[in-house]
């Protein structure tokens, strides 16, 4: 099984204020954990800068230009209290989205079966014209749109970040060819993602209460995946946030690294049955560095089947 790893050190140049949870150290925690694992045989590939045509699959020209204009020459500039720009942020964001786009191209082309994109800034809160929640470009949504353009009939996005992927949901709410299936803590930020939100029948939301035990989370996730399986996706994309871990400071779920391995094996099982094994996963949240590294490693091991 070929598993590609897309990343780039340019994504360390996107700098947030001191003590901001979405820090460059997060990416180093993930790539460090993967580099230390001798049982993995990853094909490391450079995350390219996304092309304007690929960005335009989701974002307006006006938004892309405004974001570029807002990038400061020195220091840091807030777009909202959570979401910041520094010199190098746009280049980092172009690498993050470019990683997912290139991974989708490789997987669609048959050269690679699965891919993990170790990227930041994350993407699943960003809308067509809105930065939000540390996110600038909607990385996974761009990947899903690109997959459709490449002739993949049905794409499923599985989002197990502890926060609802509101940006991705909004982008595909009227598009029955892309299923967006999210499990998240409720009540929780950003407050969207109630199970009653169903879009064009393609939006599936599962919620777990604060401090839910891992067994409860797993049952909810199984229900979510049953919907993905019934959708018969030809490609599965994962918004892989690891902030439902028990150690995470931004939420109160109780997962351990082994739960992410379990969840990933369940996704791979659906992909093997429906999608010729094709999975592209992209990093979203995860804010305890130790838990993030261990969970991402468990996830990638399960993607590779080791
Ligand atoms: Zn999150």
- N to C succession of SSEs: EHEHHEEHEHEHEEHEHEH
Sheet-strand content, in percent, reads: 15-25%
Biggest β-sheet strands, sense, barrel: 8 strands, parallel
**Structural class assignment:** alpha/beta
Poorly predicted ranges (pLDDT <50, ≥5 residues)?
Answer: none
Mean pLDDT score: 97
In total, the number of strands is 10
Give a short summary of the structure.
The protein is of the alpha/beta class and 306 residues long. The chain has helices spanning 24-35, 52-55, 61-70, 89-109, 139-149, 166-172, 214-231, 257-274, 289-304; strands at residues 3-7, 42-46, 77-78, 84-85, 114-117, 155-159, 178-185, 203-208, 235-240, 279-283.
Element layout with pairings:
Blueprint: E1 3-7, H1 24-35, E2 42-46, H2 52-55, H3 61-70, E3 77-78, E4 84-85, H4 89-109, E5 114-117, H5 139-149, E6 155-159, H6 166-172, E7 178-185, E8 203-208, H7 214-231, E9 235-240, H8 257-274, E10 279-283, H9 289-304
Parallel strand pairs: 1-2, 1-5, 5-10, 6-7, 6-9, 7-8, 9-10
Antiparallel strand pairs: 3-4
Helix pairs in contact: 1-9, 4-5, 7-8, 8-9
The structure holds zinc ion (ZN).
Zinc ion binds next to loops.
Please, could you describe this protein's structure?
By secondary structure, the chain is an alpha/beta fold. Helices cover 38% and strands 16% of the residues. It contains nine helices and ten strands. It has helices at residues 24-35, 52-55, 61-70, 89-109, 139-149, 166-172, 214-231, 257-274, 289-304, and strands at residues 3-7, 42-46, 77-78, 84-85, 114-117, 155-159, 178-185, 203-208, 235-240, 279-283. It has an eight-stranded parallel sheet with strand order 2-1-5-10-9-6-7-8, sandwiched between helices. A two-stranded antiparallel ribbon has the order 3-4. Helix 1 crosses helix 9 (289-304), helix 4 (89-109) runs parallel beside helix 5 (139-149) and helix 7 packs parallel to helix 8 (257-274). It is globular. The termini are close together. Bound molecules: zinc ion. Residues 161-163, 241, 243, 284-285 line the site of zinc ion.
